[in-house]
Amino acid sequence: MGDRVWICRAAAAMLIWISSVACDTLPTFPKATEWGSATINNDAGPRPVVVAVADFDGDGRLDVVAGYRGDGGTDPFVSIFFQLNPVTFTAVQIASGALLDGIAALAVADIDGDGQLDVIAACDGRIFFLQSPADPADGGAWSRETVSESSGADFNQWTDVLVADIDALNGVDIVACNENVGRLCFFAAPAVIAGGAGWTRVDIDAVSRMGAAGLAAQDVDGDGRTDVFSTAPGEATDRIAWYRNPGGDATGAWTKTGIGNLPGTRIDIGDLDQDSDADVVVIEPVNRQVGWYVRPADPAGAWSGFLLAQFVSNTPVDVKVADVDGNGQNDVIVPTEMAGRLRWFTPVGEPTLQWVENNLIDLIDNPGPIAVGLIDADARPDVIAPLIAVDPADDQVAWFRNPE
Q1: Residue 42 binned pLDDT confidence (cut-offs 50, 70, 90)
Q2: How many CB atoms lie within 10 A of CB 399?
């Protein structure tokens, strides 16, 4: 839905971008300043694949949690890097073992209401609840339990996970998608949370989300209930869609509204055209595109799609919406692999017509999905990224300081 507009505008947008992203050599950007970088960790282990940020110890400084897939004889694991200052972090491993294979996404929230932040990990064949002890720096005291109804013969790779209050009953719930069975669902929190037991899976869509890849959540229609956005590049139509929360305990039928048919994977939402409504931005790795969709006045109506960026040799791996330069206008941050680069895009004039590509940094290594947060507490959003090197011994988690 909205793809006729996409097709009409894409050719014109492509002409804007061909001069800046079609060249393999470093082009000149409107903002060419390279962001400074600092290593968060480079010796915790090989193959960091996902990161998130939160203040786990309540000291007012953002910490970083990272999931590692391991390599060869090294099991996958999850570690928190507690920030002492912006250039010094202390690593604490909170979970490890072969059952964490396929770790693909992390979510952070106080799930059990004890005042401590917990971690949810989406893996191959199961979702884990990593429950924080009273002292989150005591790595051995974290418990790891499988979220009930997230494992079994019907489940393979869980590709994304987030935490949101879906049913307005027992605090926050877990929203997740599984690519192999094409399932979009949420796990309703039990009245009393004791690890992974007691969670009830409710299928939002169990039939039309083949290749389900990315998630976002927001009350898009203003009815006070959290709705869910989903990407499913394996589908034939409505690959990008949002689902209306039916209310009550949210076990009723969720109404699906197609946003567009770009075979997007990673997704984020934010107001890109300054009309106070949340728009949708996605990456499409196969054709190396970044696209965005304008929320209509009635979100159940047709969404108009536009090309934001077209890469030629670099493949986008993630996308985040943030006001990079503090001008009140949201920008879009995109990491790419082959070659590893971080770029941020800002609209010039009408956002449906032109976005300018700005340098963030060129990398030797390939970044994975990123996080955005105020690492140095200067009110400018920084970027945190897992970096995969040719040699696993050179892998690291790093952050990049916003100079804007």
Answers
A1: confident
A2: 29
